[in-house]
Design brief:
The protein is of the alpha+beta class. About 60% of the residues lie in helices and about 15% in strands. Helix 1 (about 5-25) packs across helix 3 (about 60-70). The N and C termini lie far apart (about 100 Å). About 20% of the residues are buried.
Amino acid sequence: MANQKILDQKQKIVDEIANNVKESNSFVLFYHSGLSVADETELRRKLRENDSELKVYKNTLMKRALDSLNINFDEYLEGPNAVAFSKDAIAPIKVLADFAKNHKELELRVGLIDGEISNSEKLNMLSTIPSREGLLTMLAGGMIGIVRDLSICLNMYADKLESQEN
């Protein structure tokens, strides 16, 4: 039988995983075998820059934590997996998908995005969504276009009124 101290350490890790899943809007499980230490360090740095975090846990501890939250990732918990999580739903997906373009060893497997389980196809689709800043820029550009068109119409109307007075 395992030592109580070891069991307590494992339970602490299970609780940490469960807490990360609950507090994150994005929890992405990915396959990372074959990445060099330098590549993994670069990936961690890129994720940190986007307020995301990368962790590597034992699959058995991940299974316990996910089972406690009634999340079934059993078919994906084989082989060397890592997880990225963040309060931003899209940021870690974009970083991982971008990193995977140059590192074929990295493979997105499954994610829990805003409480919804997403397979690899959906994760790849989500990675193409522009960032929050990009979406806000597009919104601002659209709004500026409306204001510009309104000002042109008002100017044309003012010119018309002027010509009618003369």
